[in-house]
Design a protein that fits this description.
Length: 243
């Protein structure tokens, strides 16, 4: 039986309706202890309750490994592995450091995932799932004002100087590189600027004709080949509070 079929069985179970009704009627005061859930039954019950409700759900697991396993389960149930980030129901909120210490090496891919969650929250999206763990939620996060102030939006056909974009990327503390391979990097070759924002799954290739954005495309960081044409993009810097 496929995961989607199993999910339907759990969603239509009267006990799921009972859990959902209790949560919605008691709000922040709700306390439920579920027993007897083995293996992926936890994930199936979680997704079933989510689908019957109308609110955001946040799951805090004991550690990163357990959270990642739970997140992968939810991805499979919703068939989201190949979906674009903005279309996913489930997002992962990891730490922005490789180890639980502000002095340790930052994890750019983790920071990208954190930014995706914050963007979704600040957009006032009402229904999606966040999976995280204590070390990740203990980190400070920026507020809406910071995001709005430090967000650059570019449209294809927009009149803007390449030098302005380069200066802004340096101000945002992006790292200049020969080839863009991870979030927080940018490169320039003639009228092309490649930038890996902390707000997108893939880096962007911006082509200029003079002081005008001629085209914008996403591209694969490993092969450097174009993926998709974009009419508008958002560029965000490192959003860590203590960076």
């Amino acid at each position: 039986m496929q995961a989607s079929s199993l999910s339907s069985l759990f969603r239509d179970d009267p006990r799921t309706a009972e859990i959902t009704g209790y949560l919605e009627n008691t709000g922040d005061k709700a306390r439920i202890n579920l027993k007897g859930l083995i293996g992926s039954a936890k994930s199936l019950v979680s997704t079933a309750v989510f689908e019957r409700s109308s609110t955001l759900h946040c799951f805090i697991l004991p550690d990163k490994e357990t959270a990642a396993y739970f997140f992968n389960d939810l991805e499979q149930i919703f068939s989201e592995k190949d979906k674009e980030t903005e279309k996913r129901k489930v997002l992962f909120f990891p730490s922005s450091f490789k180890k639980h210490s502000p002095d340790s090496q930052k994890d750019n891919m983790g920071l990208l995932s954190r930014t995706e969650v914050l963007n979704r929250l600040h957009s006032r999206a009402k229904k999606f799932i966040v999976v995280t763990y204590p070390e990740a939620v203990s980190e400070k996060v920026v507020n809406r004002k910071f995001l709005e102030k430090n967000t650059l939006k570019l449209k294809s056909g927009e009149a803007v100087s390449p030098d302005f974009i380069l200066d802004l990327l340096i101000e945002y503390e992006f790292e200049r590189a020969d080839f863009v391979i991870e979030p927080g990097q940018f490169s320039q070759r003639g009228g092309l600027i490649d930038v890996y924002s902390f707000s997108g799954e893939h880096p962007y290739r911006i082509e200029f004709e003079g002081d005008k954005v001629a085209s914008i495309r996403t591209f694969d960081a490993s092969s450097q080949l174009s993926i998709e044409k974009k009419s508008e993009i958002t560029i965000l810097p490192d959003i860590r509070v203590n960076r």
